[in-house]
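note to self — DONT lose this again. spent like an hour looking for the file last time. sequence + predicted structure for the chain T wanted, 134 res
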Amino acid sequence: MKRSIFGLLCLAALGCDSSSPTVNKTPINETTTRQTVERDNTGVNVRDRDSTKKTPVDQHENQADIGTTAKIRSRVVETEMSINAHNVKIMPANGKVTLRGPVESLSEKEQIEAIAIEVAGEGNVDNQLEVNDK
């Protein structure tokens, strides 16, 4: 009861009309669309529609592959790398690991690959990480 009264008071104080929701009035044009594509990574994700490319859905659910992912992810997260690097896709399948996603530098790409090789073994890592161009 107190929350609903508080909420009503806030709406009244801000001059909000709850019957008409706020609408984003930014006009949609080619520039806005281009900025959205760059910001939300949609253009890069088009490749995921190609059935020959690995995606996280292809990750096997056996204990060995789950363990491999956990080991690589925990080692990557322990590093002082960017958020993008901490969130790369790690997709193991039968001992082979595919790495995908954007990273901020060549150094991050190499560090993540080295960690994956230490965990999965030499010759078992397909590094498809991409360095962001700013």
